[in-house]
Amino acid sequence: PLVEKRGRFGPFVGCSNYPECKYIKKEAPKETGEECPECGSPLVEKRGRFGPFVGCSNYPECKYIKKDPAKKKTSRKKTTARKASGARATRRATGADEGAGTLG
After folding, report:
1. Around 31, how many Cα atoms within 13 Å sit in the side-chain half-sphere?
2. Is the alpha carbon torsion for 87, 92, 95, 99 positive or negative?
3. Distance in angstroms (rounded) separating the CA atoms of residues 48 and 63
4. Residue 74 DSSP code
5. Is 21 in a helix, a strand, or coil?
6. Do the Cβ atoms of 35 and 42 come closer than 8 Å?
7. Could you report the per-residue pLDDT of 27-67, keeping only the tens digit for each?
8. Which of 13, 29, 80, 98 has the maximum number of C-beta atoms within 10 A of its C-beta?
9. Distance CA 77, CA 33 (A)
10. For residue range 59-92, what is the model confidence (pLDDT) as tens digits?
């Protein structure tokens, strides 16, 4: 029999005989009421690797995905500055290294 379970991605319906049976009942995609501009099939809301998206119900024949104008990619600036740590940083800050290693 199928039972409702909780997983790391939320609740789902799966077989009570797990791990021998790994059947999971998938949710039907929700229709958005819009038509695909490429093939005329209805657009549906699906869940993908990067979260929910709206795509054509005629996949894989039609691979149309509706772009979401509200989402913008944020550019992350990489910093190259490294934090100084340990005794070196202390010596540099205090000037203790100056003149070290010279004789006379």
Report:
1. 8
2. positive
3. 14
4. P
5. coil
6. yes
7. 888 899 999 999 999 999 988 888 889 999 999 999 999 98
8. 29
9. 39
10. 999 999 998 766 655 666 666 766 656 555 555 5
